[in-house]
Amino acid sequence: MTGQDKTIPVLEIRGLQTVFHDAQGAWPAINGLDLTLHKGEVLGLVGESGSGKSVAGFSVLGLIDPPGEITNGEVLFNGRDLRKLDEESLRQLRGASLSMIFQDPLTTLNPVLTIGEQMVEAIAEHTRGATPDLRRRCAEGLARVGITSPAERLDQYPHELSGGMRQRVVIAIAMLNRPDLIIADEPTTALDVTIQGQIIAEMQELQRESGAALIWITHDLGVVAELADRIAVMYAGDIVETGSTDDVLDRPRHPYTRGLLNSVPGDTAAGEPLRQIEGSAPPLSRRPAGCPFSPRCDRASDMCLDQPPPPEADANGRVWRCYHPLPEEEAA
Amino acid sequence: MLLYIMQRLMQSIGVLLAVSVAVFLAVYAVGNPVDLLISPEATQAERQQMIARLGLDQPVWSQYLTFLWNALHGDLGTSFVHGQPALSLIVSRMPATFELVVCALLLASLIGIPIGLWVGLNDGSFGSRAVMTGSILGYSIPSFWKGMVLILVLAVWLNWLPASGRGETVPVLGIPLSFLTLDGLRHLTMPVINLAIPNIALMIRLTAAGASEAVHQDYVKFARAKGVRNQRIVRRHILRNILIPIVTVLGVEFGSLIAFSTITETVFAWPGMGKLLITSIYQLDRPVVVAYVLLVTFIFVMVNLLVDFTYAALDPRVKLTERMS
């Protein structure tokens, strides 16, 4: 950690704000997000549905479509601000040094084009002139993610492959150009548990091998515990707590993180009702003025309703945004 | 595959049989052709002789069975009016209609699909909404009126284009075609535009609807995340997917334009099948009407078969399989 601090981080997000427009106005889905990611690091970005974690991922790639708009902040990728690049320079980065894996493998691949064409274009669109042995490189890419008889798969269509296979193809495409950063948006959510385990293991191996930094977006704390070096917990468009995986999972400082951990069904005895955080995440248009979690928080005071809490940090690089953090001793 | 084609052809025989019964009865109900065919001065004996010669003295079921028997031997009857076999009469008019319809659909696709793509990809912009609204006009203005306005403006006022007829034709493989001579092209232009306008509107709306839906699909977003250029995303990813409904509608439109280009052909005195049909209905020339409807039915069936093949070629998820009973 200390050695890497001197080098430029792969990704540094400062004060990112992404809003969605409607007839009533502009509603921030991401509100002043800060995030740093170093080479080879795996970050678990955790939060409930609607917390803005996917929007954060798409904002990094500049793939926010109207009515959405990135209105503020910097997205420094290897030191270059992606928000200052024109569309063509951004396109050249996407899929080359910055790639993304989507949630649902059944809809990510184009149903009417062969696997081969969809892989080949990922390379061809980033190289000038004729590239020999494109097919061989694609077949190798498929073999790396554990797909058998890869050369024949290239001529198949997505519907001829199972969901797990398709997600492997998507991962293979994301890895084709050896990116520095991969953003994986809940890549195992749509798969069944056994396939999920295999894909996570393969992903872990690929990531270590290639040294790429990885942001793994998920709502599944179990997955992050296995995979991530660090965790960032998102709530209502902002990161409320970051820190090393062990710190965050074992000694949460933010009440929301503790609430999430308590809600993991495995910790509840059989027959007991499942625990959950009371209430629900506020919709974009009704975010409270102060701390966004205050309406659902049992520690909230008047101060929390007034002003959003500033970030506070400790010596281990842990950051939280809470006026009344849980005491450090209180281990889970 | 061969079995599939055989099955489809068998089905089409069933369809043709059903249509032949319906049209035979309908034509029978329209009126008695004898009153139109025989001059009022003819004697009663001449009248009887004529009726017997045309087979009109038989009851309707017997007439139908005779027709069916002859049809199975490739004879769809002889025109009361022209004294020629009905089928060859229609077939001789077919090239003119086909030329008109093919040109109109080609024009509609070449203009409609690119505009539709643009509209679909710029969803909600002022320009795209203007085009969408304008396209409603395109297919709600009746074609006889549109045709007359075209003639009024382009032929009568400006005197740019001839108002009627087919112009000079050149035979290609024995088929006379207009579009190869300048004079023919000039004659072809107005009826083609008239027939194409509603189809341009249809293509725009169809392509726009498909494109504006496809552009939000995950596979398009993933292609963008892969760094694929916009032009390629539109050409390979979006167009390939929305071509499937477009081809279906083009197929259906081809069939109905062949069958119902009647109005355009009448307005521009285009010597095609549609004009023949209208004249034959007025003259109660039953064999021609029956043969016409059957031929058009057959063309419809064939076009649909062709559309199915195109389907399978465009969408790898579609497999043409024969039904197992």
TrEMBL record, chain A:
Residues 263-318 are annotated as: Disordered. Its main location: membrane. PROSITE patterns: ABC_TRANSPORTER_1, ABC_TRANSPORTER_2. GO terms for cellular component: plasma membrane. Keywords: ATP-binding, Cell membrane, Membrane, Nucleotide-binding, Transport. It holds the Pfam family ABC_tran. Signal peptide: none annotated. Residues 13-261 form the ABC transporter domain. It is a peripheral membrane protein. CDD domains: ABC_NikE_OppD_transporters. InterPro entries: AAA+_ATPase (IPR003593), ABC_Ni/Peptide_Import (IPR050388), ABC_transporter-like_ATP-bd (IPR003439), ABC_transporter-like_CS (IPR017871), Oligopep_ABC_C (IPR013563), P-loop_NTPase (IPR027417). It is found in: Cell inner membrane. Gene3D superfamilies: P-loop containing nucleotide triphosphate hydrolases. GO terms for biological process: peptide transport; transmembrane transport. GO terms for molecular function: ATP binding; ATP hydrolysis activity. Belongs to the ABC transporter superfamily. PANTHER family: DIPEPTIDE TRANSPORT ATP-BINDING PROTEIN DPPD (PTHR43297:SF2), OLIGOPEPTIDE TRANSPORT ATP-BINDING PROTEIN APPD (PTHR43297). This is ABC transporter ATP-binding protein. It comes from Paracoccus alkanivorans.
From TrEMBL, chain B:
InterPro entries: BPD_transp_1_N, MetI-like, MetI-like_sf. Residues 94-307 form the ABC transmembrane type-1 domain. One of its GO terms (biological process) is transmembrane transport. Keywords: Cell membrane, Membrane, Transmembrane, Transmembrane helix, Transport. The keyword Transferase does not apply. GO terms for cellular component: plasma membrane. CDD domains: TM_PBP2. The chain crosses the membrane at residues 12-31, 98-121, 141-161, 242-270, 290-314. It is a multi-pass membrane protein. SUPFAM superfamilies: MetI-like. It is found in: Cell membrane. The keyword Electron transport does not apply. PANTHER family: ABC TRANSPORTER PERMEASE PROTEIN (PTHR43163:SF2), DIPEPTIDE TRANSPORT SYSTEM PERMEASE PROTEIN DPPB-RELATED (PTHR43163). Belongs to the binding-protein-dependent transport system permease family. This is ABC transporter permease. It comes from Paracoccus alkanivorans. The lineage of its organism: Bacteria, Pseudomonadati, Pseudomonadota, Alphaproteobacteria, Rhodobacterales.
